[in-house]
Amino acid sequence: MKKPLTIILACALFFASSPGYCAGQGIDGAWAYYLRGDYKQTISICRSIAGNASLGDQGRYIMGLAFLALGQAEAARENFEFVVKYYPRSGLDELLLLGIADSYFLEKDFDRAGKAYKAMLDKYPSSDYAALAYLGSGKALRKQGKWELARGCFNKIIQQYPSSLEAKEAGDYYRRQSFFTIQLGAFSKRENALRYAEALEAKGYAVSVDKEMEGNNVLYKIKRGNFSTLASAESELARLKKDGFSGTIIS
């Protein structure tokens, strides 16, 4: 699973600037495994520490990140909220609020995610992680079809944080057209994508096959429709499913 941008950058910024951030060798090991992408081992180490002593604020935070990376949003949020409640002076407040917001986004609860990003920005308007929160907020708003509000978030990053890592992604979102579409498949081979597109068209569904880059990989994505509302996209997806096709609504 792709790790959320918010979490990756926030971790790097915080821990790199925190002298002695891993006072215990066990936490050191957990963080090392997390950075290597071994999230299950990260959690295992954190649990072993907790079995013998207090895991502490940083250990709980790292474990929350690992759960988030594994797609276990509720478990991640429980750890972040534990630190908020029991370690009010941890110095991790902004990162914890970002993690909580990301957990809601992962669960596709875009309304709560957007409110959580906004709450972080309201509490820490001058945060070093403001661009991350605006990016998350804009993406959550897009998922709800709140196009102009989303563009406002992306524009804020472009204008106020032009040299940030988030500025490029914000620019990409800012330039996107405002509609929902249904993605019906992604193939590494063009001929496979065309074959699937033909099956859809045989059922009366007009689709496009778009060549897109994801990292260093080329994917041929099959998409259908430009829907102005989420409800209309959901209705069309339900019709597709009745005909035996599966898909995902994207914005």
Could you please describe the fold and organization of this structure?
It is a single chain. With 251 residues, the chain is of the alpha+beta class. Helix content is 63%, strand content 12%. It contains twelve helices and four strands; from the N terminus they run ααααααααααβαββαβ. The chain has helices at residues 5-16, 25-35, 39-52, 56-69, 73-86, 93-106, 110-123, 130-143, 147-160, 166-175, 190-202, 230-242, and strands at residues 180-187, 208-214, 217-227, 248-250. A four-stranded antiparallel sheet has the order 2-3-1-4. A hairpin with a 2-residue loop joins strand 2 (208-214) and strand 3. Helix 3 runs antiparallel to helix 4 and helix 6 (93-106) runs parallel beside helix 8. The longest helix is centred in the N-terminal third of the chain and has 14 residues, at 39-52. The radius of gyration is 20 Å and the shape is globular. It starts with a helix and ends with a strand.
Percent range of helical residues: 55-70%
Count of individual helical segments: 12
Mean pLDDT: 90
Radius of gyration: 20 Å
Shape by Cα distribution: globular
Ranges with pLDDT <50 over ≥5 residues? 1-5, 16-24
Q: Structural class from helices and strands?
A: alpha+beta
Content of β-strand: 5-15%
End-to-end separation in angstroms reads 20 Å
How do the SSEs run, as a string of H and E? HHHHHHHHHHEHEEHE
Number of strands: 4
Strand order of the largest sheet: 2-3-1-4
Largest sheet: 4 strands, antiparallel
